[in-house]
Amino acid sequence: METTLNLHKKYNIRRVINACGKMTHLGGAIVLPEIAxxxxxxxxxFFELDEIQMVAGRIIxxxxxxxxxxxxACTSAGITLSVAASMTGNDIARVFQLPNADGMPQRVLIxxxxxxxxxxxxxxxxxxxxxxxxxxxxxxxxxxxxxxxxLKKGNVAAVVAVESHHTVRFGWVKLPQxxxxxxxHNVPVIVDGAAQDLRLRELIGFGADLVIVSAHKYLCSTTGxxxxxxxxxxxxxxxxxxxxxxxxxxxxxxxxxxxxALEYRMQQDIPGWTAEQDxxxxxxxxxxxxxxxxxxxxDPDPNGCPFSRARLTPDPQVTGHTAKSLAAALIEGDPTIVxxxxxxxxxxxxxxxxxMTDEEIEITCEKVRRIFKSS
Length: 375
Known about the structure:
Blueprint: H1 7-11, E1 16-19, H2 33-42, H3 49-64, E2 68-72, H4 75-88, H5 92-97, E3 107-111, H6 122-127, E4 132-136, H7 144-152, E5 156-162, H8 175-183, E6 189-192, H9 200-205, E7 210-214, E8 225-229, H10 231-239, H11 252-267, H12 270-288, E9 294-300, E10 308-314, H13 316-319, H14 323-331, E11 336-339, E12 349-351, H15 358-373
Parallel strand pairs: 1-11, 3-4, 3-5, 5-6, 6-7
Antiparallel strand pairs: 2-8, 7-8, 9-10, 10-12
Helix pairs in contact: 2-11, 3-11, 4-10, 7-8, 12-15
């Protein structure tokens, strides 16, 4: 007799083996039991949201090294609200006025190579606040002089920077220098660090004014966005809940989940966690090492987070498959196996083992073998 609710069976939904990583379209992360218990307990009680946000602010500050923090619906919401905060400050009349930005600083600078699409264009997240995104430089080059030129024009509310492997990796102004340039003109820097919660303290340490990370990625919490930064700006972010942020507010389960996740992170054995991820990557390599025509290697996280991924590069002449066709074949069926196919056009794909159990690794590697064998 089943003692737990089987949602796949009840709603006739395919099971997913997540070999892609902490992806919103796959539901974020598996929430850790210690965090799920806190979030579940919150369902049984009433709270004043302002009060628990104050507590969250103290925990975010302790975990990040920032002055304060708050919880939003997600990172995307946090970006929009942070931009809005840089425009309104703590002036409630301005909060009520948005998205009409008349009379406010409204130009938001972003390097063109940072204009990523994370499920929606980041420039759209900026425009939602009533701001005007100003793309600086060209796709593969942005020089400090170009940032300086735009700052000197004035009417700049903020500079937005994206810390992600999706950005152009060369020819851009790196975050520490970007912060120095912006601060010389008293302009705040907002960092979209959605999947960079493992680097949160580092990003704050660079001097960023606001950093937003996802609670539901490596923090393994319920869906939410964690905003950390200067108290005056964080207060202005939270004040947006009385205006355009009303539909982006976090519920009690998101706030308590983020709090529990950050408390868990502060006592977490990160070297031990890294060793476990390395073990699972090695398990993948060991299961596929003798597959003819398949080259295997290990890719460190491109943003410097403490984990790696297995890289699979099939030789189409031997295996009968390109990286694209291998990814498509893995996705077929139930369970669907979703690889990290960001680089399929370049001839390889990754298996991200963080959300995979040993059993799921075995299933995935066996399916890879079957796909090649049937070609």
